[in-house]
Amino acid sequence: GAVPNPATAAARLVAALHDADGRVTIPGFYDNIAELTDAERALIAELPFDESEWLRTAKSHAAAGEAGYSTLERVWARPTAEVNGIGGGYQGPGGKTIVPASAHVKLSFRLVSGQDPYEVEAAVRDWVAAGIPDGIRHSITFGAPTRPCLTPLDHPALQSVVRAMGRAFGEKIRFTREGGSGPAADLQDVLDAPVLFLGISVPSDGWHSPNEKVELDLLLKGVETTAYLWGDLAAHHHHRTTA
Question: Which helix (H) or strand (E) holds 87?
Fold first, then answer.
């Protein structure tokens, strides 16, 4: 028809969000991100990760994402653009030959170290504006962003965590990242100190679910690790004082 169709425009907008390799097509989206080093990729590869079990937990049959990266690398170190919802037009029983008056799309973007939420927001606004046909009005609302944060693996304070956990658990300590969100970047800026995560929970704990649990032996090992950590930090680091 001669009248622009918002639902068609929304569908095309969503289809254009990724290329054939699963990369986000928004210009500038990948600018300045902290790329995985060969050493970091090797550390991730040596983790005991069972992808089939991970898929069963996620209630999915296949993993998907940016080409050239493993599942854990995608989850932990690569940014994403996700379609959380899309709708518009007539969706009731039977047929109806109409041109929808409106349509909506809800997107989320998981950012990684090196990306600035406000720069990404500006890039998204420009990309959407360039892809909307003439005759269709559009508006975009962004929620409050959470900035990405990364503590370097070779940071001395993180090495204190490694020594403390190794002493408590008697095992080689390996590294993971986290694909969730939190105020770590703000804490790091305000305190001018690295943020250290000492994780002792396991995936079956059901984080944030109604039946969330904790393994008591791991919890006690975490307490033991914390005790060692304070001593290690005191022994290996000189804290800055201000007048």
Answer: strand 80-88
Residues in the chain: 243
| CATH number of the domain to which 219 belongs | 1.10.150.900
Residues 113, 149 contacting (CB under 8 angstroms)? yes
CA 126-132-137 angle, to 5 degrees, is 100
**DSSP 8-class letter at 24:** B
pLDDT digits (tens, 9 = 90+) for 60-95: 888 899 999 999 999 999 999 999 999 999 989 998
CATH classification at residue 98: 3.30.70.360
> Are 167 and 117 part of one and the same domain?
no
Residue 199 has pLDDT above 70, yes or no: yes
Specify the DSSP element, H or E, that contains 226. helix 216-236
Domain residue limits at 127 = 6-131
